[in-house]
Amino acid sequence: MRCPLCDAEHIRHFHSDVRRDYFRCAQCALVFVPRRFHLGPEAERDEYLLHENEVDDPGYRNFLSRLSQPLLTRLSPSSSGLDFGCGNGPALAAMLREAGHTVALYDPFFAPAQGVLAGHYDFVTATEVVEHLGRPGMELDRLWDLLQPGGWLGIMTKLVLGQREFAGWHYKNDPTHVCFFSRHTWEWWAGARGAALEFLGSDVILLQRVQ
Question: In terms of DSSP H, where are the helices of 76-135?
């Protein structure tokens, strides 16, 4: 078994519950679920359709503002971006467009236009997305390569705090959540790419491509 983020072989058991086993990488500290526990595409899509994320929902917009507000202060006027994993209710893209930016959409289930993954952007956002990635190393590298020098990668995901906290953590119980990042994980990932890294609150991560 190798880490799906950094490909390291030094993997240790981290936790088990009645549904799944979880392992932790000794190098990057990613906690992940082995592929045998991953849902198939149809079952995964069905789970996402249970989410009630409407574009104009004030509560959903308030939740997303934890990323949009700090990101907007860092963007130049009329920037171009990609909302990766936008889901079936791309509220964040609407909020950024309302602020004067151009935003392309990509989602493997709801906006599968592969052409947008060939562009270059001033920013890329992925809100409540990275925990769903079966191959996070490959996907995050692809997003990083889409950024212009000086561009921003904006992430929202809950962070692993420790083994005891993980045992009672509701976030791990979603069957579509298959990898879990900690501050150490993002510090490792940013360091490997020479990226500037900021943690904002409990679940917002901003990374700037400085080269």
Answer: 91-98
How many Cα atoms occupy the beta-carbon half-sphere of 141 within 13 Å? Answer: 9
**CB burial readout 134-164, b (16+ within 10 A) else e:** eebbebbeebbebbeeebbbbbbbbbbeeee
In contact, 82 and 134? CB cutoff 8 Å: no
Phi-psi region of 59 (alpha: psi -120 to 50; beta: other; left: phi over 0): alpha
Rounded Cα distance between 176 and 191, Å, is 28
List of residues 6+ apart from 166 with CB closer than 8 A: 14, 15, 22, 31, 160, 172, 180
Provide the angle, in degrees to the nearest 10, between the axes of the packed helices 58-74 and 91-98.
Answer: 50
Placement of tokens 């390569």 in the chain:
145
The reported pTM is 0.96
Q: State the pLDDT at residue 174.
A: 96
Give one word for 198, left, alpha or beta, with left for phi > 0 and alpha for psi -120 to 50. Answer: beta
Q: What are the residues whose beta carbons fall under 8 Å from the beta carbon of 59, sequence distance 6 or more? A: none
Q: Convert 99-117 to b/e letters by CB count within 10 Å (16 or more is b).
A: bebebbbbbeebbeeeebe
pLDDT tens profile 114-145: 999 999 999 999 999 999 999 999 999 999 99
Q: Which residue has the tokens 């904002």?
A: 200
Inter-residue contact 171 to 177 (CB < 8 Å): yes
